[in-house]
Amino acid sequence: MSSWFSSKEFQFGATALVSGAVVAGGILGYQHVRRQEMVEDLKSSIPALGKSHQADRNEILSKEDERSAELARRAQKGDYDDDLILEQLARNRVFLTDEGLNKLRGAFVIIVGCGGVGSHCTSALARSGVSRIRLIDFDQVTLSSLNRHAVATLADVGTPKVNCLRRHLQQITPWVKFDLRNELFAPAAADVLLGPWRNHDGSAEARQPDFIVDAIDNIDSKVALLAYCHEKGLKVISSMGAGCKSDPTRLFIGDISTSTEDPLSRSTRRRLRALGIASGIPVVYSTEKPGPGKASLLPLPEEEFQKGAVGELGVLPDFRSVVIRVTMYLRRVGRKWNRGEIGEGYDAGEDAQGLKLGLNVNDVGYLVEEVWRGRSVVSGVPTRLALVRWRKPADGSTIDRTVEGQKSSKVRMRDLVCMTREEAAVHEREVVRGGKSPEEIFDREIVEMVEARLEEEIGYEKYR
């Protein structure tokens, strides 16, 4: 063995191995150093964000922009002939009459979201005569914004959307006062962002917004804004989704509770219902249905399809009658419910008189419409519906006695599914009061769909 280690073959092999390791180490070391140099070069080529940066609030204005800005400053101080304004608004004056035009000219409107929808809305309001407009948006103009933004040009790419709107619109309506808020709408800042109008000198007018326009495309911010407006009694109108919709005759304005064929509206409505807000918010939405030959968004991931068929994304046209029927059914059998018709007190073998059930009519509506989409999970039938436990409680206990003198049901919204009365009776007998599991009775597709919806509902519970 020792002779082999001292052989020429071993020495050549060892030499080659060491040489290879040295060369590889040198190459890797060079690549690492070169990579670091390239990163440093890239960092040094990026200008610091200062006052001269295009995205800063202090914009670099052209001579024409400076002239327009100076004219706007003078006009907003009153140094602008009112006859010129009335001449520019002559068509509006004919349509609205002097009384209506004066009301519009004295209005204060807030637009939250200054993208495709918000920019066109702002442009229309300014051109119509609204004199006080507050713009709220955290984003900047990008190349992809140019196909839908109302006024942005290539020169505006990289600038805040709120600045872009003011700069262009003050060239058209210099008398309009703009209040720019280059920030993301958040509940913590709602009192300030949606608060009274403030003059340029910082003084506040005792004037709340006449209307708020929701043109947000972020679901969390949209729900937060609408919930705040509903709570404070502020007038608001919300823009829902119209992506890949092409039929303008299918656009409607109505209460959010009646919106159909609109996934964004459905998601917003479900979040709001979880907060106890079922109606009272006007929305703009499209009822156009997807179909062959129509544009469509990019394919959804497979897990999204497991949540239900495309046709189930919209609320039923007769949703209200469905909820009323379910509610009336629950009221008629309320005593039976309390005595254990869905397992409450039945298995415990005790009197359930006075049992308190933690569900109300709004909860029923939420479950029927938003979770189960107005259909039986078994047959898809939208009539003669009832709510029934999906599984028997693991510990067999259905009554909470933590409060002395009060028996309360442990049933939660995540425990209930929607079936026809006949299906619910069988399910109750076999599963809730019997010893079977849903997997033993229903097809795998039904079980997976129900479990996915229940899991989704657990995620929505944080909004309640």
Automatic annotation (TrEMBL):
GO terms for molecular function: tRNA threonylcarbamoyladenosine dehydratase; ubiquitin-like modifier activating enzyme activity. One of its GO terms (biological process) is cyclic threonylcarbamoyladenosine biosynthetic process. It holds the Pfam family ThiF. The keyword Transmembrane helix applies. It comes from the Eukaryota. SUPFAM superfamilies: Activating enzymes of the ubiquitin-like proteins. The chain crosses the membrane at residues 12-30. Gene3D superfamilies: NAD(P)-binding Rossmann-like Domain. The keyword Transmembrane applies. Residues 91-281 form the THIF-type NAD/FAD binding fold domain. GO terms for cellular component: mitochondrial outer membrane. Keywords: Membrane, Transmembrane, Transmembrane helix. PANTHER family: TRNA THREONYLCARBAMOYLADENOSINE DEHYDRATASE (PTHR43267), TRNA THREONYLCARBAMOYLADENOSINE DEHYDRATASE 1-RELATED (PTHR43267:SF2). This is tRNA threonylcarbamoyladenosine deHydratase. It comes from Hyphodiscus hymeniophilus.
